[in-house]
Structures are given as structure tokens and as C-alpha cells.
Amino acid sequence: MLLGAHVSISGSIDLAVDRAVELGCTTFQIFTRNPRGWSYTKLKQQEANQFREKFRKAGYSVAMAHMPYLPNIASPKKIVYDKSVKSLTAELERCGLLGVDLLVVHIGSHLGAGIEKGISLAANAVNTSIEKVENKVYVLLENMAGQKNSCGSRFEDIAAILAKIEHPDRVGVCLDTCHLLAAGYDIRNTEAVEKTLAEFDRLIGLERLKAVHLNDSKGELGSGLDRHEHIGMGKIGDTGFKAFINHRAIRDKPMVIETPEDKAGNYQTDLAKLRKLYTS
User: Fold this and answer.
1) Rounded distance, CA 206 to CA 197, Å?
2) Where does the pLDDT of residue 193 fall: very low under 50, low under 70, confident under 90, or very high at 90 and above?
3) I need a labelling partner for 192 at 20 to 30 A (CA). Which of 53, 166, 246, 271 fits?
4) Residue 247: which CATH number?
5) Can you give the residue range of the structural domain that contains 213?
């Protein structure tokens, strides 16, 4: 089971590997830099080498990075869009340097300019960045939670973006369970999971699914609320997660939690719950 958590790079980026090992992760996710700002320090080769060496020694085969919060590759505002494309390009380069093969990207918001405009901008951003960075890093489009003006909350939107991608061998999808439920895709039991993933396969193709974010949802089905909850404590529940992670299309994918750490639980408790729900 490729199961892990989003771990901190605080102190030094290679320490993320140590934290993943401590949690018993078999995969993990990081931000390669401060996720709450535009500026960043260029990765030094020595830093990348330390990360790679720890990654290799720990026996990891796959990890993913997540884009910072500020970029919006669907934004019709030129200044924000240009900075977002530049950020995506830089992240592809940083992932290549680190040997991290998967880069998860929020598709973002069209800010009222219309879904077709947002789809076109998002596809262009991905195409531009991939054209500039020749490496093996996969861009993974993450489904959105159904927020107002969001691009990529519906499978049809993601399919439309993928249809415009010029290098399809470099682009896939990361499904977030909280976002699925919030956007109106039921995954609360075996029948619902089967129906939702069949719809994904029909519109996008399960071969494009490369990774999963496992988060329970504070919001109800179709709420449009992007609020993560501990595994089993939200509206998806244990039954939904057991059905989802054991589905034939999911069970071999890298799965990462982005759940809260509070009085109700932490990464250890959520990972333990998922390991218990996973059938070998």
C-alpha cells in the first residue's frame, strides 16, 4: 500500500524524508518551498542531493509535490496568470532536481470569466510550462471542490483541459476525496464509489489517474465546501473510505492524507485508520 502524508520541509527539505519515515509512510507529499508566498530561494544542488540520497536509502519509489497556494492557472488576470505559469514552470524544475515525479496542481478559478476561458487558460499554462521543462515530472490536475467559479470540479471540465494538452504523456489527474464529495460525487459506500469511478473512466479514463488525496469532508455531498476532516469522522465515513481505497482502480495508487492535526486526531491516527481499512 502506497500510503503517506503531506510532510513539512521545515529546517531543510531533506528532513521531509525523515518525517515520512517516522510516520511509517510508504509514499509522501511535500511543498518544495513556502506555499504562502510567490518568492522562493533557488534549490541548491547539495540540498537536492541530500534529499535524493535519503529518499533512496529509505526505499521510496514515488513521492509527490504540491503547488503553492497563490498560483491560479485559470485566472483571467494577466499579472496573476503570468506569475502562476512562472511558478508552475519553476516547480517542474524543482521536482526534477529532487527526483519527485508527481506535481499536484489546483486547476483554480476563472473568477467569473466563464468555464471555457478557465479551461483554455489552464491548459495553456500546463502546455507552456511543460514545453519549457524537459524532464519526467508528471503534472497532476487536482479536482476542485465545487466552489463558485472553480475550474475542474466536474469531470467534464478536467476532460476538456486534458483534450487541449499537447504532451499527454506528462499530464494526469490526482483525485481528492473531500473535493469529490463536496463537488457532488458520492463515494460514501461501495455502490457509490463504483458509480463515481465509472463516470471518471467514461469521461477521463482511469489510466489518467496517477495519485489520490485521502481526506474526509466536513461538508455534505454537493456542499462545495473544501474543509478536510479526519478519516472516518466526516461525511464520507469509514464505509466510504474502505470502499474507495480497496477499489481496483485506486488500491495501487500513491495515496496521501492532508488531514487536520488537532484534539480529534493527527497523521498517526488517520494513517492507522486507513491501514486498518485496507484489505491485503
Assistant:
1) 8
2) very high
3) 271
4) 3.20.20.150
5) 3-277
Read off the C-alpha cell for 162. Answer: 486534458
- Per residue in 65-100, is it b (16+ CB within 10 Å) or e — as a string? bbbbeebbbbbbeeebbebbbbbbbbbbbbbbbbbb
* 53 carries an active-site annotation: no
> Which of the four pLDDT bands, split at 50, 70 and 90, describes residue 274?
very high
Active site residue 228: yes
Concerning whether 247 is annotated as a catalytic residue, the answer is no
DSSP state of 137: P
pLDDT bin (cut points 50, 70, 90) of residue 179 is very high
Query: Is residue 101 among the annotated active site residues?
Result: no
Assess whether 142 carries a catalytic annotation: yes
176 is catalytic: yes
Identify the active-site residue in 93, 226, 229, 270. 226
* Catalytic hit among 106, 170, 188, 230: 106
How many domains, the chain? 1
156 is catalytic: no
